[in-house]
Write a structure and sequence with these properties.
With 364 residues, this protein is mostly helical. Helix content is 74%, strand content 1%. A two-stranded antiparallel sheet has the order 1-2. Helix 4 (87-103) packs antiparallel against helix 5 and helix 4 runs parallel beside helix 6 (150-191). Mean pLDDT is 77; it is low at 306-364.
Length: 364
Amino acid sequence: LSGLLFGAMLPLLFAALTMISVGKAAAEIIQEVRHQFNNHKNEKGYTLRSAIEKASKGIAISPEEDVIPDSDRCIMISTQSSVKEMIAPGAYAILAPLVVGFLVGPKCLMGVLAGALVTGCMLGILMSNAGGAWDNSKKLCEKLKIKKTEQGRACVVGDTVGDPFKDTSGPALNILIKLMSMVSLTIAPLLAGKNDWQSWYFGGIPLFVCVLITGFLVNKEILTWKDPLQAIDSADMQGVESKKIEEVESVEEVEEVKEAKDVTEVTEVEEVEEAREDEKVEVVEEVEKVEKTEEVVADVLEPEPVILGRADDPLRVSTRTSEPVIGGRADDDPRRALTRPVHLNTRSELSRHQSPSRSQSAPL
């Protein structure tokens, strides 16, 4: 019974190891392709990304701009991964019958072979049919032109899992069953006629080798349960973070430029306002100077009042001249008539202004 359980577990372990191996190999190739997109250049310095972008847009590529990708590098990665990742599944497929046969006995080994046969057969059929269905579902989505819908995206994910299901893990289970059966038949004469746990110390040797190989593969990170796409996701996150940092820095630079422009505009406005204030002060000063000048001119040109007395006063002073005026009429001297203000200080003048005919007949 313990042999049946142990044998039923081996195909599942084998399928899991092969699936992880396919994922890690694909991740390494993806990283190499991305590296060549940005860093692989021709003799003229053109990158592979520029050539692919022009080709995708339908632009003709000149021989100088054409870049040939390094496909040998991808083939080398695939070949190395296929050999390196098969160390653990191959070692477990060979060492499992040896450990069980020599450590426990032939009866347990029969249970291991039976469990591995039943589980491996059912699991192999499941993976082949499921992987083929997932692969064909994407082709159906392309035929129905629903590739960009949610159903189409789900079919793409199913195809990603379905390819290693039907091409790697499913066919590999057949090899597992055959390999375990061949090793068991090889050691069968050595186990003939032995009881359980009779020669267990011989089983310790393959068990120690199995543990040693497992430790070596774990130390070299060949046997690991990490997500193979984690490195790509971290690289994408770093690229996104670097882009965000660049965008933030560019925004900060734009803000600094805007602040500098605002400061310069404010200083210019202040300078304009100061210039306007200076102009206003100058205008006010000029206006004050003009007013003072007008006052001085008005003081100079303003005539002095003529003191009028009676008509028989011997002397009257003129504003134009300092010569004495001897009696007579007000209009005898035309210069005095133009400059002297009229002061109605006497009754005779009042009567003359009221009645011009009388004033002409009666002298002042």
